[in-house]
Amino acid sequence: MADDLQSKIEQLMSDPRSLVFLEVGETLRVRGELEAAVRITRKGLDHFPDHADGHDLYARILVDAGSADQAEEEWNVVLALDPRHVGARKGLAFLCYRRGELDAALDHLELALAADPHDRSVVEALRTVRNAADQAMQDASVRGGALPAAMVFAGLEGADAGLLLVDSRGTVLGGGLKSADQQPVGVEVAAYLAGVSQEAERTARLLDLGEWNWIVAETAEANMFLTQPTAGTLLLMSRDRSIPSGRLAILAGKATAAARQWLEAQAP
Amino acid sequence: MTAGKFQRALENITRVRGVRGAMLVAGEDGLIVAESLMEGVKGKAVAALAASLANRFRRVAEASATGYLQFLHLQAFEGVILTVPADSGVLVVALAEPKVNVGLVRLEMLRAAEALAG
Question: What's the structural domain count of chain B?
Protein backbone atom coordinates (compact mmCIF):
# COMPACT_ATOMS: atom_id res chain seq x y z
CA MET A 1 0.00 0.00 0.00
CA ALA A 2 2.73 2.40 1.05
CA ASP A 3 4.72 1.37 -1.97
CA ASP A 4 1.71 1.91 -4.15
CA LEU A 5 1.22 5.41 -2.74
CA GLN A 6 4.88 6.17 -3.08
CA SER A 7 4.91 5.13 -6.74
CA LYS A 8 1.91 7.32 -7.45
CA ILE A 9 3.46 10.28 -5.68
CA GLU A 10 6.56 9.76 -7.82
CA GLN A 11 4.36 9.59 -10.90
CA LEU A 12 2.73 12.86 -9.90
CA MET A 13 6.07 14.53 -9.28
CA SER A 14 7.25 13.51 -12.71
CA ASP A 15 4.00 14.64 -14.28
CA PRO A 16 2.25 17.32 -12.21
CA ARG A 17 -0.57 17.45 -14.77
CA SER A 18 -1.44 13.80 -14.14
CA LEU A 19 -4.92 12.93 -12.89
CA VAL A 20 -3.27 10.55 -10.48
CA PHE A 21 -3.52 13.42 -7.96
CA LEU A 22 -7.07 12.16 -7.35
CA GLU A 23 -5.84 8.77 -6.14
CA VAL A 24 -3.01 10.23 -4.13
CA GLY A 25 -5.28 12.83 -2.49
CA GLU A 26 -7.90 10.21 -1.62
CA THR A 27 -5.33 7.82 -0.16
CA LEU A 28 -3.84 10.58 1.98
CA ARG A 29 -7.35 11.61 3.10
CA VAL A 30 -8.20 8.06 4.12
CA ARG A 31 -4.91 7.82 6.01
CA GLY A 32 -5.74 11.04 7.83
CA GLU A 33 -2.82 12.92 6.36
CA LEU A 34 -5.06 15.84 5.64
CA GLU A 35 -2.48 18.58 5.16
CA ALA A 36 -0.68 16.52 2.52
CA ALA A 37 -4.03 15.62 0.96
CA VAL A 38 -4.99 19.28 0.72
CA ARG A 39 -1.65 20.22 -0.79
CA ILE A 40 -1.77 17.50 -3.47
CA THR A 41 -5.42 18.11 -4.34
CA ARG A 42 -5.08 21.87 -4.61
CA LYS A 43 -2.09 21.49 -6.90
CA GLY A 44 -4.09 19.10 -9.03
CA LEU A 45 -7.01 21.52 -9.16
CA ASP A 46 -4.62 24.25 -10.28
CA HIS A 47 -4.14 22.16 -13.37
CA PHE A 48 -7.74 20.99 -13.64
CA PRO A 49 -9.88 23.80 -12.24
CA ASP A 50 -13.04 22.40 -13.82
CA HIS A 51 -12.55 18.85 -12.69
CA ALA A 52 -15.72 17.91 -10.77
CA ASP A 53 -14.18 14.83 -9.11
CA GLY A 54 -11.21 16.93 -8.04
CA HIS A 55 -13.45 19.44 -6.28
CA ASP A 56 -15.46 16.58 -4.78
CA LEU A 57 -12.27 15.10 -3.35
CA TYR A 58 -11.25 18.49 -1.99
CA ALA A 59 -14.66 18.91 -0.36
CA ARG A 60 -14.36 15.53 1.38
CA ILE A 61 -10.91 16.44 2.66
CA LEU A 62 -12.31 19.72 3.97
CA VAL A 63 -15.10 17.90 5.81
CA ASP A 64 -12.54 15.61 7.41
CA ALA A 65 -10.57 18.69 8.39
CA GLY A 66 -13.67 20.18 10.01
CA SER A 67 -14.25 22.91 7.44
CA ALA A 68 -17.87 22.14 6.63
CA ASP A 69 -18.68 25.57 5.22
CA GLN A 70 -15.80 25.44 2.77
CA ALA A 71 -16.72 21.89 1.85
CA GLU A 72 -20.25 23.00 1.07
CA GLU A 73 -18.93 25.72 -1.22
CA GLU A 74 -16.75 23.18 -2.92
CA TRP A 75 -19.60 20.75 -3.50
CA ASN A 76 -21.66 23.56 -4.93
CA VAL A 77 -18.79 24.15 -7.36
CA VAL A 78 -19.02 20.47 -8.28
CA LEU A 79 -22.75 20.76 -8.95
CA ALA A 80 -22.18 23.83 -11.07
CA LEU A 81 -19.84 21.74 -13.15
CA ASP A 82 -21.94 18.59 -13.05
CA PRO A 83 -25.47 18.88 -11.65
CA ARG A 84 -25.82 15.09 -11.55
CA HIS A 85 -22.67 14.52 -9.54
CA VAL A 86 -23.58 11.83 -7.04
CA GLY A 87 -20.63 12.48 -4.74
CA ALA A 88 -21.54 16.15 -4.35
CA ARG A 89 -25.19 15.28 -3.65
CA LYS A 90 -24.15 12.75 -1.07
CA GLY A 91 -21.73 15.21 0.50
CA LEU A 92 -24.31 17.99 0.70
CA ALA A 93 -26.88 15.52 2.05
CA PHE A 94 -24.41 14.56 4.76
CA LEU A 95 -23.88 18.20 5.74
CA CYS A 96 -27.63 18.86 5.81
CA TYR A 97 -28.21 15.70 7.84
CA ARG A 98 -25.58 16.77 10.34
CA ARG A 99 -27.27 20.14 10.70
CA GLY A 100 -30.65 18.45 11.21
CA GLU A 101 -31.98 19.68 7.88
CA LEU A 102 -33.50 16.33 7.06
CA ASP A 103 -35.80 17.47 4.26
CA ALA A 104 -32.90 19.07 2.42
CA ALA A 105 -30.78 15.96 2.99
CA LEU A 106 -33.53 13.81 1.51
CA ASP A 107 -33.79 16.13 -1.50
CA HIS A 108 -30.07 15.76 -2.23
CA LEU A 109 -30.15 12.00 -1.80
CA GLU A 110 -33.18 11.57 -4.01
CA LEU A 111 -31.42 13.56 -6.72
CA ALA A 112 -28.35 11.38 -6.22
CA LEU A 113 -30.46 8.26 -6.55
CA ALA A 114 -32.08 9.63 -9.68
CA ALA A 115 -28.59 10.16 -11.12
CA ASP A 116 -27.44 6.67 -10.16
CA PRO A 117 -30.23 4.30 -9.08
CA HIS A 118 -27.72 1.50 -8.44
CA ASP A 119 -25.52 3.33 -5.95
CA ARG A 120 -25.93 1.25 -2.80
CA SER A 121 -24.34 3.93 -0.62
CA VAL A 122 -27.05 6.39 -1.67
CA VAL A 123 -29.78 3.84 -0.92
CA GLU A 124 -28.28 3.24 2.53
CA ALA A 125 -27.95 6.95 3.19
CA LEU A 126 -31.57 7.50 2.12
CA ARG A 127 -32.73 4.81 4.53
CA THR A 128 -30.78 6.40 7.36
CA VAL A 129 -32.12 9.90 6.72
CA ARG A 130 -35.70 8.70 6.24
CA ASN A 131 -35.56 6.86 9.55
CA ALA A 132 -34.22 9.98 11.20
CA ALA A 133 -36.99 12.06 9.61
CA ASP A 134 -39.65 9.60 10.85
CA GLN A 135 -38.17 9.69 14.32
CA ALA A 136 -38.09 13.48 14.27
CA MET A 137 -41.78 13.56 13.36
CA GLN A 138 -42.64 11.15 16.16
CA ASP A 139 -40.60 13.20 18.62
CA ALA A 140 -42.37 16.36 17.50
CA SER A 141 -45.70 14.65 17.98
CA VAL A 142 -44.77 13.51 21.47
CA ARG A 143 -43.52 16.99 22.29
CA GLY A 144 -46.80 18.37 21.00
CA GLY A 145 -48.73 16.12 23.36
CA ALA A 146 -46.69 17.21 26.31
CA LEU A 147 -46.37 20.79 25.24
CA PRO A 148 -45.67 22.99 28.23
CA ALA A 149 -49.06 24.07 29.47
CA ALA A 150 -48.53 27.75 28.86
CA MET A 151 -47.48 27.11 25.25
CA VAL A 152 -51.07 26.40 24.24
CA PHE A 153 -51.78 30.08 24.63
CA ALA A 154 -48.30 31.32 23.78
CA GLY A 155 -48.41 34.99 22.98
CA LEU A 156 -51.72 35.56 24.73
CA GLU A 157 -51.85 37.69 27.83
CA GLY A 158 -52.03 35.63 31.02
CA ALA A 159 -51.15 32.42 29.18
CA ASP A 160 -50.12 30.53 32.28
CA ALA A 161 -51.89 32.46 35.00
CA GLY A 162 -55.42 33.14 33.83
CA LEU A 163 -56.21 30.73 31.02
CA LEU A 164 -57.11 27.15 31.74
CA LEU A 165 -58.01 24.48 29.21
CA VAL A 166 -59.58 21.34 30.71
CA ASP A 167 -61.25 18.22 29.41
CA SER A 168 -64.66 16.91 30.43
CA ARG A 169 -63.11 14.82 33.22
CA GLY A 170 -61.47 17.81 34.81
CA THR A 171 -57.96 17.15 33.56
CA VAL A 172 -55.86 20.18 32.74
CA LEU A 173 -54.93 20.19 29.06
CA GLY A 174 -53.15 23.50 28.89
CA GLY A 175 -52.67 26.95 30.29
CA GLY A 176 -52.75 27.61 33.99
CA LEU A 177 -54.53 29.50 36.69
CA LYS A 178 -53.10 31.31 39.66
CA SER A 179 -54.93 32.53 42.70
CA ALA A 180 -54.87 36.14 43.78
CA ASP A 181 -51.82 35.31 45.91
CA GLN A 182 -50.09 33.73 42.88
CA GLN A 183 -50.55 30.12 43.94
CA PRO A 184 -51.22 27.65 41.11
CA VAL A 185 -54.84 26.50 41.40
CA GLY A 186 -55.42 25.12 37.91
CA VAL A 187 -55.80 21.48 38.95
CA GLU A 188 -58.32 22.29 41.67
CA VAL A 189 -60.36 24.60 39.48
CA ALA A 190 -60.32 22.06 36.65
CA ALA A 191 -61.92 19.54 38.99
CA TYR A 192 -64.75 21.97 39.81
CA LEU A 193 -65.35 22.66 36.15
CA ALA A 194 -65.59 18.99 35.18
CA GLY A 195 -69.10 18.22 34.12
CA VAL A 196 -70.20 21.82 33.55
CA SER A 197 -70.41 21.22 29.85
CA GLN A 198 -72.62 18.15 30.12
CA GLU A 199 -74.89 19.79 32.69
CA ALA A 200 -75.29 22.92 30.62
CA GLU A 201 -75.89 20.90 27.48
CA ARG A 202 -78.46 18.66 29.10
CA THR A 203 -80.39 21.53 30.64
CA ALA A 204 -80.20 23.70 27.53
CA ARG A 205 -81.64 20.79 25.55
CA LEU A 206 -84.38 20.24 28.10
CA LEU A 207 -85.31 23.91 27.98
CA ASP A 208 -85.00 24.18 24.18
CA LEU A 209 -82.28 26.79 24.58
CA GLY A 210 -80.10 25.32 21.85
CA GLU A 211 -76.37 24.97 22.27
CA TRP A 212 -74.79 26.90 25.12
CA ASN A 213 -72.12 29.38 24.03
CA TRP A 214 -70.46 30.67 27.14
CA ILE A 215 -70.79 31.33 30.85
CA VAL A 216 -69.66 34.48 32.59
CA ALA A 217 -69.06 34.40 36.33
CA GLU A 218 -68.39 37.57 38.25
CA THR A 219 -66.87 37.37 41.69
CA ALA A 220 -65.89 40.12 44.09
CA GLU A 221 -62.43 40.33 42.57
CA ALA A 222 -62.51 38.60 39.20
CA ASN A 223 -64.44 38.16 36.01
CA MET A 224 -64.39 34.67 34.53
CA PHE A 225 -65.37 33.55 31.08
CA LEU A 226 -66.01 29.89 30.30
CA THR A 227 -66.28 28.62 26.73
CA GLN A 228 -66.22 25.30 24.95
CA PRO A 229 -63.43 25.32 22.30
CA THR A 230 -64.37 21.79 21.17
CA ALA A 231 -66.85 19.17 22.28
CA GLY A 232 -65.66 17.87 25.62
CA THR A 233 -63.26 20.67 26.48
CA LEU A 234 -63.68 23.86 28.47
CA LEU A 235 -61.63 27.01 28.49
CA LEU A 236 -61.71 29.29 31.50
CA MET A 237 -60.33 32.79 31.28
CA SER A 238 -60.04 34.70 34.52
CA ARG A 239 -59.12 38.35 34.93
CA ASP A 240 -59.41 40.90 37.67
CA ARG A 241 -62.45 43.14 37.73
CA SER A 242 -60.63 45.93 35.93
CA ILE A 243 -61.24 43.95 32.73
CA PRO A 244 -64.94 44.29 31.98
CA SER A 245 -66.91 41.24 30.90
CA GLY A 246 -67.28 42.54 27.35
CA ARG A 247 -63.54 42.88 26.85
CA LEU A 248 -63.07 39.55 28.56
CA ALA A 249 -65.34 38.02 25.93
CA ILE A 250 -63.09 39.37 23.16
CA LEU A 251 -59.93 38.06 24.84
CA ALA A 252 -61.61 34.73 25.48
CA GLY A 253 -62.56 34.53 21.81
CA LYS A 254 -58.89 34.76 20.83
CA ALA A 255 -57.90 32.20 23.46
CA THR A 256 -60.67 29.88 22.31
CA ALA A 257 -59.37 30.04 18.74
CA ALA A 258 -55.83 29.28 19.95
CA ALA A 259 -57.08 26.38 22.06
CA ARG A 260 -59.10 24.98 19.16
CA GLN A 261 -56.08 25.17 16.88
CA TRP A 262 -53.90 23.47 19.46
CA LEU A 263 -56.47 20.75 20.11
CA GLU A 264 -56.82 20.08 16.39
CA ALA A 265 -53.04 19.78 16.12
CA GLN A 266 -53.08 17.12 18.84
CA ALA A 267 -55.62 14.98 16.99
CA PRO A 268 -54.07 11.72 15.77
CA MET B 1 -89.44 38.03 54.09
CA THR B 2 -93.02 37.02 53.40
CA ALA B 3 -94.28 34.99 50.48
CA GLY B 4 -95.83 38.17 49.11
CA LYS B 5 -92.48 39.92 49.14
CA PHE B 6 -90.87 36.96 47.36
CA GLN B 7 -93.49 37.12 44.71
CA ARG B 8 -93.23 40.89 44.24
CA ALA B 9 -89.44 40.65 43.87
CA LEU B 10 -89.83 37.99 41.21
CA GLU B 11 -92.52 39.88 39.36
CA ASN B 12 -90.28 42.92 39.10
CA ILE B 13 -87.80 40.71 37.29
CA THR B 14 -90.32 39.09 34.98
CA ARG B 15 -91.63 42.53 34.04
CA VAL B 16 -88.45 43.16 32.07
CA ARG B 17 -89.09 42.51 28.39
CA GLY B 18 -87.75 39.14 27.28
CA VAL B 19 -87.73 37.49 30.69
CA ARG B 20 -89.59 34.16 30.64
CA GLY B 21 -89.43 33.50 34.30
CA ALA B 22 -87.74 34.16 37.61
CA MET B 23 -87.21 31.99 40.65
CA LEU B 24 -85.75 31.89 44.08
CA VAL B 25 -83.76 28.70 44.43
CA ALA B 26 -82.13 27.09 47.43
CA GLY B 27 -78.44 27.29 46.64
CA GLU B 28 -77.55 24.04 48.37
CA ASP B 29 -79.95 21.64 46.73
CA GLY B 30 -81.41 23.52 43.79
CA LEU B 31 -84.99 23.31 45.04
CA ILE B 32 -87.37 26.09 44.07
CA VAL B 33 -88.38 28.36 46.92
CA ALA B 34 -90.59 30.67 44.87
CA GLU B 35 -91.25 31.10 41.17
CA SER B 36 -92.86 33.33 38.58
CA LEU B 37 -92.65 31.49 35.31
CA MET B 38 -94.28 31.71 31.93
CA GLU B 39 -96.31 28.67 31.01
CA GLY B 40 -94.22 25.77 29.76
CA VAL B 41 -90.96 26.86 31.36
CA LYS B 42 -89.34 23.90 33.11
CA GLY B 43 -88.43 25.64 36.32
CA LYS B 44 -86.94 22.61 38.05
CA ALA B 45 -84.37 22.11 35.31
CA VAL B 46 -83.41 25.78 35.35
CA ALA B 47 -83.16 25.75 39.14
CA ALA B 48 -81.02 22.61 39.21
CA LEU B 49 -78.59 23.95 36.63
CA ALA B 50 -78.38 27.38 38.25
CA ALA B 51 -77.64 25.86 41.66
CA SER B 52 -75.05 23.49 40.25
CA LEU B 53 -73.26 26.22 38.31
CA ALA B 54 -73.36 28.56 41.28
CA ASN B 55 -71.82 25.89 43.50
CA ARG B 56 -69.10 25.11 41.01
CA PHE B 57 -68.15 28.74 40.47
CA ARG B 58 -68.35 29.47 44.17
CA ARG B 59 -65.72 26.78 44.64
CA VAL B 60 -63.68 28.14 41.74
CA ALA B 61 -63.80 31.57 43.37
CA GLU B 62 -62.74 30.11 46.70
CA ALA B 63 -59.87 28.17 45.14
CA SER B 64 -58.64 31.19 43.25
CA ALA B 65 -59.17 33.51 46.21
CA THR B 66 -61.19 35.93 44.12
CA GLY B 67 -63.95 36.61 46.61
CA TYR B 68 -67.60 35.63 46.67
CA LEU B 69 -69.66 34.88 43.59
CA GLN B 70 -71.83 37.81 42.54
CA PHE B 71 -73.33 36.96 39.16
CA LEU B 72 -73.58 34.13 36.66
CA HIS B 73 -74.65 34.39 33.05
CA LEU B 74 -75.09 31.36 30.81
CA GLN B 75 -75.61 32.32 27.19
CA ALA B 76 -77.22 29.82 24.83
CA PHE B 77 -78.42 30.31 21.26
CA GLU B 78 -82.07 30.43 22.28
CA GLY B 79 -81.89 31.91 25.73
CA VAL B 80 -79.98 32.96 28.81
CA ILE B 81 -79.95 31.84 32.41
CA LEU B 82 -78.91 34.50 34.93
CA THR B 83 -78.12 33.88 38.57
CA VAL B 84 -77.47 36.23 41.47
CA PRO B 85 -76.63 34.66 44.85
CA ALA B 86 -78.24 36.36 47.81
CA ASP B 87 -76.69 36.51 51.26
CA SER B 88 -79.11 33.96 52.67
CA GLY B 89 -77.80 31.21 50.39
CA VAL B 90 -80.80 31.61 48.14
CA LEU B 91 -80.23 32.19 44.44
CA VAL B 92 -82.21 34.62 42.35
CA VAL B 93 -82.51 33.01 38.95
CA ALA B 94 -83.95 34.30 35.71
CA LEU B 95 -84.56 32.66 32.35
CA ALA B 96 -84.79 35.02 29.39
CA GLU B 97 -84.65 35.48 25.64
CA PRO B 98 -81.14 35.51 24.17
CA LYS B 99 -81.21 39.24 23.40
CA VAL B 100 -82.68 40.39 26.65
CA ASN B 101 -81.30 43.53 28.29
CA VAL B 102 -79.07 41.66 30.72
CA GLY B 103 -78.11 44.82 32.57
CA LEU B 104 -81.71 45.60 33.37
CA VAL B 105 -82.55 42.07 34.44
CA ARG B 106 -79.46 41.97 36.58
CA LEU B 107 -80.47 45.20 38.29
CA GLU B 108 -83.85 43.76 39.21
CA MET B 109 -82.22 40.54 40.34
CA LEU B 110 -79.85 42.44 42.63
CA ARG B 111 -82.82 44.33 44.08
CA ALA B 112 -84.54 41.05 44.70
CA ALA B 113 -81.42 39.69 46.39
CA GLU B 114 -81.25 42.79 48.59
CA ALA B 115 -84.91 42.43 49.44
CA LEU B 116 -84.27 38.84 50.48
CA ALA B 117 -81.54 39.96 52.85
CA GLY B 118 -83.67 42.72 54.30
Answer: 1
